[in-house]
Amino acid sequence: MASTDRKVANGEDNAVFSLRRERGLASSYLYLFQEFWCPGIAIEGVKSFQKCFQAKHGDVVVASFPKTGTTWLIALTFATVNRQHFSAENHPLLTSNPHTLVSCLEFKIFCDDIHDPVLHLSNMIEPRLFSTHTPFTSLPKSLTESNAKIIYICRNPFDTFVSAWTYFNKIRSTMSLPALELEEAFEMYCNGVVSFGPWWSHMLGFWKESLVRPKKVMFLKYEDLMENVNFHVKKIAEFLGCPFTAEEESDGVIESIIKLCSFEKMKDLEVNISGKLDKIIDNKLFFRKGEIGDWINYFSPSLIQKLSKIIEEKLDGSSLSF
Ligand code: A3P
User: Fold this and answer.
1) Fold of 30-156+197-291
2) Catalytic: 85?
């Protein structure tokens, strides 16, 4: 049982006990916390992140809704920022999963895993790179009001759903839990009851901020990255204040980063075939198909109609579209 669920069961955590909770795609309960559906195992982490995180000049945070391309963007960002330090032949991304190199603030740094997160953070090599699934409105002020940079990735909600449903069913099977039927999971997704959901509020939070403060928040779509990754890697480097020089461009540095972080390369690395993240999650679960439009193989006409209508309604007037 996850720590928050256990505390709730034992009546230890009255604050969490009072929160509305629902079953989500994953195994643990989701709690309606600060207007988003927070996995029980992440509540304490989000709270500590909010309370204790002190942003530093140069910090970079990769933010995302789960299953939208986080792993890919983390890898591209890590390789871009650290390109002076590692050669393509001897790169940490060849032997470590991207999530090991760039830790998640609420799941790793401020969870039970690290004994003294503040000390750990102060000892990190700069620029510090992190990831988060916490919605924009719940990020600590220290992060939103500093000049730390946030890069956000989102993805077509159809593909995000299929990726999430298949991923969480694999997690469930490793815990000997029965798989969720597609229709059951789809209902949760349409109601926004998914980890860090509703997904529309999540993406709109970062979208709006990227329009108001484009130097603070860079907003990317998985589909755009797929279409022209070279263009977006250059944009990422510019946004982070470390643009590629003409020499780097002609030396093929961008192409080598793209190749290193490509789905085909990463999924076949030994660490991503047989390794585990934090001794729990099989790294291979982060690499499924890496395609646009796989949803067509799963959706019936009525499900297409339903999700299209939700997307239209929720994103109406936002200038964000898919
Ligand atoms: P699919 O399940 O559609 O294949 P996240 O990293 O946020 O968990 O997202 C996982 C999705 O990104 C999965 O999508 C996965 O296959 C895809 N993905 C992982 N690494 C990728 C890469 N290097 N390039 C493109 N897509 C990648």
Assistant:
1) Rossmann fold (3.40.50)
2) no
Indicate if ipTM > 0.95.
yes
How far is it, in rounded angstroms, from Cα 148 to Cα 58?
Answer: 6
Q: Map out the domains of the chain as residue ranges.
A: 30-156+197-291
Q: Which of 57, 85, 120, 133 is catalytic?
A: 133
How far, in Å, from the CA of 71 to the mean position of ligand 1? 6
- Whole-model pTM: value is 0.95
Question: Phi/psi at 84 (nearest 5 deg)?
Answer: -75, -25
**Range 172-189 average pLDDT:** 94
Cα separation values, 81 from 105, 132, 222, 237, 262, Å: 19, 18, 20, 7, 17
CA angle 66, 56, 137 (to 5 degrees): 40
The contacts of residue 307 (CB under 8 Å, 6+ apart) are 157, 158, 161, 186, 190, 299
DSSP for 161-189?
HHHHHHHHHHHHHHTTPPPPPHHHHHHHH
Helix (H, G, I), strand (E, B) or coil at 257: helix
- The H or E element that residue 146 is part of is none
